[in-house]
Amino acid sequence: MTAAPETLTPVQARQAFRGGLRVPTSGFSPGFAQANVLALPRELAFDMLLFAQRNPKSCPVLGVLEPGQVSSALLAAGDIRTDVPAYRVYRDGALVAEPDDVVEQWREDLVTFLLGCSFTFEAPLRAAGIPVRHMDLGVNVPMFRTSRRCEPAGALSGPLVVSMRPVPAERVADAVRITSRYPGVHGAPVHVGDPAALGIANLAEPDFGDAVDVPDGWIPVFWACGVTPQAAVMESKPELAISHAPGYMLITDLPDAELQVP
Amino acid sequence: MTAAPETLTPVQARQAFRGGLRVPTSGFSPGFAQANVLALPRELAFDMLLFAQRNPKSCPVLGVLEPGQVSSALLAAGDIRTDVPAYRVYRDGALVAEPDDVVEQWREDLVTFLLGCSFTFEAPLRAAGIPVRHMDLGVNVPMFRTSRRCEPAGALSGPLVVSMRPVPAERVADAVRITSRYPGVHGAPVHVGDPAALGIANLAEPDFGDAVDVPDGWIPVFWACGVTPQAAVMESKPELAISHAPGYMLITDLPDAELQVP
Question: What does the sequence similarity comment in the record state about its family (chains A, B) (predicted)?
Answer without folding.
Answer: Belongs to the D-glutamate cyclase family.
